[in-house]
Design a protein that fits this description.
two-stranded parallel sheet; elongated; DUF38 domain-containing protein; 8 helices; 14 strands; alpha/beta
């Protein structure tokens, strides 16, 4: 039998999941030392929930593997409470929230040090957050990976994604799943495919001399993956040099200018 929260080994917690329903909230804890998770339900605005959550954060002795929040409510007591908590150390965060405003309430309380990946599902919204606020929150972080699920990939989101991926190193990879997309705007922003495969398209956009932005569109799963990748440095073989008259001519001019 799984112990109640007061008897649980809180220093061995590996995951915390919070699910808010109508006037109720459920905490689910995963442990390194217990086979089964612990679940406990509260009223969403209860002081006991808040007290127990603080106790969980204070007594754990390691970084969480995952912190998950699921909320269907536009006005959420739980999201408001979480947004005022100390930094939450986790390698992965999973958010299933009503809109991007709620996501932006949670992002600032995540400890960016151990954070590696973010899964985000927006249930009632296709508008992502303001890019300047996100850049400010994670300005010292590099190499994050993010998956986003939303109904429609609109023009404003495409512009935001291109801007944050080309102007900062916060994200290494962002994958977006969607139901609808404006392909005209997509092609206008990212160009025509440079490579067409059986069920996907590849586009590349220049970032710098060292990196490209690679855009992989999966035609079967309605997914687009944006990733930063190193520019392939092409080596010139000796045969290519010897067969290139321009290169040989320049070499000859150089040698003629040297006093042997």
């Amino acid at each position: 039998m799984v112990p109640m929260l007061g008897q649980a080994p809180l220093d061995h917690i590996k995951s915390v999941s919070i699910v808010e329903k109508v006037k109720r909230v459920l905490i689910c804890l995963g442990f390194y030392t217990l086979a089964d998770p612990l679940e406990q339900e509260y009223e969403s605005d209860s002081e006991q929930f808040q007290e127990d959550f603080r106790k969980i954060l204070n007594q754990r002795d390691s970084v969480l593997q995952e912190f998950k929040v699921r909320c269907d409510q536009q006005d959420s007591n739980v999201i408001d409470f979480l947004s005022n908590q100390p930094k939450i150390p986790t390698e992965k965060v999973t958010l299933e929230v009503a809109d991007s405003r709620q996501a932006m309430q949670i992002f600032p309380v995540l400890d960016v040090g151990p954070l590696k990946s973010i899964d985000l599902k927006l249930k009632n919204d296709s508008q992502l957050w303001d890019d300047q606020r996100l850049i400010q929150v994670w300005r010292d972080k590099e190499g994050l990976e993010m998956e986003i699920i939303l109904e429609e990939l609109i023009k404003e989101n495409m512009e935001y994604l291109k801007k944050i991926l080309t102007n900062s190193r916060i994200f290494r990879k962002i994958s977006i799943y969607f139901e609808k997309i404006d392909l005209g705007q997509f092609n206008k922003l990212f160009g025509q495919p440079s490579e067409i495969l059986e069920n996907s398209e590849i586009r590349k956009s220049w970032i710098s001399r060292e990196e490209n932005l690679r855009i992989h569109r999966d035609l079967l799963r309605n997914r687009i993956q944006f990733s930063r990748e190193p520019v392939e440095q092409r080596r010139v073989s000796a045969l290519e040099v010897l067969s290139n008259s321009t290169i040989l001519g320049n070499v000859a001019k150089f040698l003629n200018g040297i006093d042997l």
